[in-house]
Amino acid sequence: MLKKKICALIAVVLILAQIFCAGCGNTNTEDKLLRIHVRADSDSPAAQAVKKEVVAAVQFYLSEELKDARSYGEAYKAVEARREVLQEIASAVLRRKGFGYGATATLSNEYFPARMYGDTVVESGYYDALIVRLGTGGGDNWWCVLYPAMCYTPSASDETAYKSLVAEIAKKYF
User: Fold this and answer.
1) pLDDT in tens, 128-165
2) What pLDDT sits at residue 3?
3) How far apart are CA 32 and CA 102, in angstroms?
4) CA 110, CA 116: separation in Å to the nearest integer?
5) For the packed helices 45-65 and 83-96, what is the interaxial angle rounded to 10 degrees?
6) Long-range contacts of 20-29 (CB under 8 A, 24+ apart)
7) Contacts for 97 with CB less than 8 Å, ≥ 6 apart
8) Global pTM?
9) CB-based contacts of 44, cutoff 8 Å, min separation 6
10) Is 152 strand, coil or helix?
């Protein structure tokens, strides 16, 4: 009899914990993320260096273009409408640096491993993403979250510093 009561009590505690913690992990009301994935042509030092320059140029452009996006849908449509411009931005960086290959920019649904952005964990899984392929796209790559903005920039100490537009706004107004 005591064993049944203990099992019932444990079951009640687990159910209550699940009810009260249902929203503990993710306070985002919209779970959809839009990611970005830049794939270098190869692992050569030159290809990896130009990949970083492409990332910077694309991020600079998208930071302005996505600043008014208030939903995943708005962000996706903005990227979709600018896909050819993004491809040309990446190709222009490659041409300016003397590379004989171009870039392609596509929207795709692809698998990404789990990743931490500051205190935020983005779980592994399939996500819609802007894929920027430089040349063959066979080298080491870089990825981040475009919406909501979580992309990082290297700090002066070469450690990764994470920035979130949502967090910055929250700090300013709350």
Assistant:
1) 999 999 999 999 999 888 888 877 444 333 333 334 34
2) 62
3) 30
4) 18
5) 140
6) 28/148
7) 50, 53
8) 0.69
9) 139
10) strand
